[in-house]
Amino acid sequence: MNKNRLLLLTFVLAFIGLYIIYEHNKPATYTLTITPAVGTQPLVFNDSRYPNPGGTGTFSIRAFQFYISNIKLVSDDATYIEPESYHLVRFDNTSKTYTITLKEIPNLAYQAIELSIGVDPKANGTITVSGDVNPNSRMAWSWDVGYKFVLFEGTLDQSEKRTPLVYHIGFDENYASLSFPLQSDTKDLRANVDIMRMFHGPSTIDMSQLPTIKFDRKDSQLMSSNYRHMLKLN
User: What spatial distance separates the first Cα and last Cα of the chain, rounded to whole Å?
Assistant: First the structure.
């Protein structure tokens, strides 16, 4: 092998090595796609098809949305914390899903993803716009500074009787922090949210007996103890 070929081979090998290092260390993009369900059924708005978990009748869902905040990716070496990490999850769109995209993530081997349902106390007590937290939105309380963490509205049908359902939850103690292990190195994360879990979990709620929760701390805590189990990573 002559000198020129040796230099060329050395250059090529060095380039390949640098490219491998670059690919291994370049920032990554993660996506978290959330798909809704109501028990074993898909979410369909304005259709009285879902059984009252604690009593008689069926219910429909007119509106459902909730905040996810403070997303973190945890590894043995470091923790990535998403800035301005407030996302209003809603499904009144064509895809019937909601996707969160995390960009410029350090390329590490992450073992878990952490997130919370609701708005943390610091942001919950401010009118500053941050991420999807907006004091002019439907999720802001009209009677106090702060935000609804979870909003559910619909109707319970029982024979000839129709009862409006309104569940607006948002006291600081209803903030629910969750952690999910990551089983592989996939960056395309999938999760399901089971809306029925708001009413059936540690406590079973009869919608006919408790059709509205808005300002009562005891009832709000009852529901938040349930909804902390509604989100599952696939």
Answer: 55
| Residue 62, domain extent | 27-233
CA distance 71 to 151: 20
Nearest to 169 by CA among 222, 122, 213, 120: 213
Q: Which residues neighbour 65 within 8 Å (Cβ) at sequence distance 6 or greater?
A: 88, 89, 90, 91, 139, 150, 151
Q: Is residue 190 part of a domain?
A: yes
Contact 217, 171 (CB under 8 A): yes
Q: Could you identify the residue written with the tokens 């509106």?
A: 63
- The answer as to whether 180 is a domain residue is yes
Q: How far apart are CA 219 and CA 213, in angstroms?
A: 6
Do the bridges between strand 28-38 and strand 188-194 make them parallel or antiparallel, or are there none, so unpaired? parallel
Dig out the tokens for 37 from the structure.
Answer: 């369900």
How many structural domains compose the chain?
A: 1
Is residue 157 one of the residues assigned to a domain? yes
Task: List helix spans (H) across the chain.
Answer: 3-25, 121-124, 217-227
The answer as to whether 222 is a domain residue is: yes
Calpha distance 218→64 (Å, rounded): 21
Q: For residue range 132-144, what is the model confidence (pLDDT) as tens digits?
A: 998 888 999 987 7
Whether 231 contacts 89, CB under 8 Å: no
The string of pLDDT tens digits covering residues 9-54 is 555 454 454 344 444 567 899 999 999 999 999 999 999 999 999 9
For the chain, the average pLDDT equals: 89
Residues with Cβ within 8 Å of 2's Cβ and at least 6 positions away in sequence, in order, are none
Strands 150-158 and 161-169: antiparallel
